[in-house]
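Dear colleague,

Following up on Tuesday's group meeting, I ran the structure prediction for the two-component complex that the binding team flagged. I've pasted the input sequences exactly as they went in, so you can double-check that nothing got truncated or mislabelled along the way. The structure tokens for the whole assembly follow below. Feel free to forward this to whoever is handling the docking comparison.

Inputs:
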Amino acid sequence: MALIDLNRREIHCKIVYYGPGRCGKTTNLFYIYNAISEKYRGKLLTIETRGERTLFFDLLPINLGKIHGLDIRIQLYTIPGQSHYRATRKLVLKGVDGIVFVADSLRKRREKNIESLLDLRNNLKEYNLNLEEIPLVFQYNKRDLVSANIPLLTIEELENDLNRELKAPYFEAAAIKGIGVFDTLKEISKRTVKYVARKYVFSQAQAKAEGGII
Amino acid sequence: MGTMVVTAEKVKELQRVLDSQLLAIGVSLAILIDEAGNVIVAAGNENGVDTTSLAALAAANFGATAQIAKLLGEEDFSILYHKGKRDNIHFTKIGMDFILVTIFTDEIPLGLVRLRVNQVAHELLNLLTEND
């Protein structure tokens, strides 16, 4: 649930990085955290197991500057990718406004990507949301491994497996080196803010709201 | 779940309730959050407390214990309480979508906090759900 705070003139949106275990969701957040100045980011919160796997979620609040006089504050969350954490993933999705699906380009992870996308679809359904409607961006991660001679899925294969019908924007990335990280973030932020603003204007048209302007 | 809009007037009213009912009995910090982990309004002394992280963790904590509740055949646990050496924290569900987080020292009796929180829950819910 996005929050529009007209008192402090802020819009708060929640973007969740989804995807199978070890695909690089937390790596995206770490890169963003290290690359932006303190002025524009809050504390990075991580809840992980000893094996450095995300146990519950990571959270990074960032500030994107002003749109129409309102400060855009975005909370980036990741989910635990391992399949047995389904209940936790559902919790993190509560109130989500935008999704980045990070897919693992490793050929042997093909099934895991497909499984994770299906899991996302099912979890959203429980909140009466669907993938066709909510802002969504794909990130095909680990593209740098092509030079290491590791068998990767081609972009066409990834597109065909995951994005054939959704036709969401996608970015090739090597999150560990920062390649594609900010392209992904920029696109999903833009789409999410637009989506939230549109929903707000729509709800405002339905019920009389006081003092709100976008 | 749509977009929630809080106006300056609404924040003022919510803050007044938190001030007059909770801070007045010595509660150090009262934060009203939604279940997605957004801070709607905070009142009291934020000294050194990262309210953004606190809100995200509080919402997650509530969600996780609701799952435990379901395992026991309960819908959820509407009150959570954690005791520390100096500070204590109390979480109460307000309606379906909101959580009131109260932080207080050992000098304030838990019973008094619970009583006041119960009393304000209804008022807060009305303010949060009424149409402007």
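The two ends of chain B are 18 Å apart (CA to CA).

Cheers,
M.
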